[in-house]
Design goal:
The longest helix is centred in the N-terminal third of the chain and has 15 residues. This protein has 10 helices and 8 strands. Strand 5, helix 3 and strand 6 form a beta-alpha-beta unit. The two termini are 30 Å apart. The mean pLDDT is 96. The protein is an alpha/beta fold. It is globular and about 50 Å long. The chain has an 8-stranded mixed β-sheet with strand order 1-2-4-3-5-6-7-8, with helices on both faces. The chain has a single domain, classed as Alpha/Beta hydrolase fold, catalytic domain (Rossmann fold, 3-Layer(aba) Sandwich), CATH 3.40.50.1820.
Length: 256
């Protein structure tokens, strides 16, 4: 796994087997709360032939060093510095859930740094219930299990769900809690209309964490958005139905 020093912290990220070729378009994938770049395995492998795929671990997550950030704005600024260190030219930035919030913030504050955005299972506002916040503090393992069960649509194999639980439990409870707190404070309902980038919005029809109405709002209020709803999928749509998600991404890239 390659590493890069950003703000004095060693950051780990994954690329496709072909690495990062300067002549190809790049997609930077940003995971959600309590996640790692591993959630993008199907995109890293499935899209690698046509584009550079870069799947990072945010600070304090996975194998990246340092503490996690406490606000979406902090993560957003850090993401921009990460991309600048890689010297990427006109990348597309994809974010899942909290990662989508990070991408939206970046599109508003640093519009010149990338050429398009992909928002998966996300929203312009991401309220988190007090039960989740209190549960992470009181009993992280039990709350993690409840969260993961909610993240997948009906028919998802127990093997996939168990993998998701293991990934979440490997993270520090404090980092996960701060991620969810950052989501709870995120609200760009009145600002996303200023985003001029072309955008692809993807969600699962059975997503109970960020329901399809969140993605519909994004599609209705972003200036240049395309909405793709994946039937039967839940919050982890890029894991559950990678074929359709990847096909949607490739179709979007062809329009740029």
């Amino acid at each position: 796994m390659p590493t890069l020093e950003v703000d004095g912290r060693e950051i780990h990220y994954l690329t496709g087997v072909n690495g990062v070729a300067p002549e190809r378009r790049s997609i930077v994938f940003v995971h959600g709360a309590g996640g790692t770049g591993m959630v993008w395995q199907n995109q890293r492998r499935g899209l690698d032939r046509g584009v550079n795929t870069i799947c990072l671990d945010l600070p304090g997550h996975g194998q990246s060093h340092g503490a996690g950030c406490t606000t979406i704005a902090e993560y957003s600024g850090w993401l921009i510095r990460f991309m600048q260190r890689l010297e990427l030219s006109g990348p597309i930035v994809a974010g899942h859930s909290m990662g989508g919030a990070v991408v939206l913030e970046a599109a508003i504050e640093y519009p010149e740094e990338f050429d398009g955005l992909i928002l998966i299972s996300s929203g312009a506002r991401l309220r988190v219930s007090s039960e989740i916040l209190q549960g992470i503090e009181a009993d992280f393992e039990a709350t993690a299990e409840q969260l993961v069960q909610r993240c997948y649509g009906p028919g998802t194999s127990e093997k996939v769900i168990q993998w998701g639980l293991e990934q979440l439990l490997a993270e520090q409870p404090e980092v996960v809690l701060n991620d969810f707190k950052a989501c709870n404070e995120f609200d760009k309902l009145g600002k996303i209309g200023s985003i001029k980038h072309p955008a692809l919005v993807i969600c699962g029809s059975e997503d109970s964490m960020t329901p399809p109405k969140y993605s519909q709002y994004l599609a209705d209020n972003l200036r240049r958005a395309t909405l793709r709803i994946i039937d039967g999928a839940g919050h982890m749509v890029m894991v559950e139905d990678a074929f359709k998600v990847n096909a949607s991404i490739l179709k979007f890239l062809a329009t740029l």
